[in-house]
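Journal club side-thread
Mid-discussion, someone asked how the predicted structure for our own chain would compare to the paper's figures. Pasting it here so we can look after the session.
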Amino acid sequence: MVHPILGLHHVTATVDDAQSDLNFCLDLLGMRLVKKTVNFDNHHVYHFYYGNERGTPGTIWTTFPYKGHGVRAGVKGAGQVVATSFSVPATSLGFWRDRLTSYGADVRDVTTRFGEEAVATVDPSGLWCELIGTGNDARTPWTGNGVDAAEAIRGLHSVTMTVRSAGPTLELMTGVLGYKVVNQERTRTRVAAGGDAPGHFIDIVEDPDAAAAFNGIGTVHHVAMAIATADEQAPLRQALLQMGVRVTHARDRCYFQSIYFREPGGVLFEVATRQPGFDVDEPLASLGRDLKLPPWEEPYRKQIEPGLDTVEY
């Protein structure tokens, strides 16, 4: 049975310094901080969510700043998302080259893939990021910090994951998760779910000789796919269990409900519901301003807040 994945939900990475991460995502990339909370599995660490005005699924980039917590630098390789791509208007790539250069960031043009031009950079923690120019992304962007609507990031475009053997990964994604192969070029296969457009793509690169990935600072922790409701998530979980996939129980992430599992190539997948969204605990106009804690951590706020870095934005 094929289950109704709607596209990308979010991508989560492990980063170094909290302030540097905020500066890069807000002041340079021009995204909106839609939630400042803590890692629900480690309340000593922030969890930042960036996106468009509402943090609509498919626009969300999230980070765990682990500086000072003994986490080593990660290693990019097989069994991991190695690059995250954001969608921008094709006419804006010159703007982004100049902006990234003036910021002091590494900038390079990416070899055209599937007819798309892109600019690549590296964030302060070592994450590989791309800005892919497209003419078919109608999503309304968040604007500000010197980035106007004509240039602003529309949301996630795609992620690139590396596996040693693409066959089993494609079998799961097309046979169970509802993805379709929409393009192929040498060792890269692009699949899409919920639409053939930015925000719906995952690129699978097969590299039999790739070194094993190691999660740490400067690497993507997981990629999340969107599903409409918990009622649709539950049968997907059961199907995965029947296939012998080790999948977690549904976890309450306050802004969505999630299950987690590793696909055959080792990449950590999350399937997250679209609701209730980021305005469930603060007004839309002031998203991201205050530290929000899950209800089970709220009694410990006085102990948690002093242990978090002071940040400005």
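Post-session note: The chain has one domain: 5-307.
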